[in-house]
Amino acid sequence: MASAGKLTSQVAATPARAAGAAAYIGLMQVADFDPGRILREAAGRVTVEEKLAVAHRLRELAWEVKAGAIRAQHPGLSEAAVQDRVREVFRRALD
Hints:
The protein is mostly helical. The chain folds into 2 domains: 1-33; 47-95. 77% of the residues lie in helices and 0% in strands. The longest helix has 26 residues, at 48-73. The chain is elongated and about 55 Å long.
């Protein structure tokens, strides 16, 4: 895999490549490009049930990540203690 510096030097190695890269970057800067609008339109096509399922899965992922962090910081804790700490972190987030 090429490093970022090597890739940059390869792209700019010839004027044609440099011009192509500049044109590509120009396409990414189109005035109509509005990621917020794109997300709002996509969200409008998703059912409430699908949105709730995604929200539930995101919460589960956040729980798993936090539990992993607590396990890494405190390797001697039992699983029950880890879950208690995660529960407390999530409870404090609601305050």
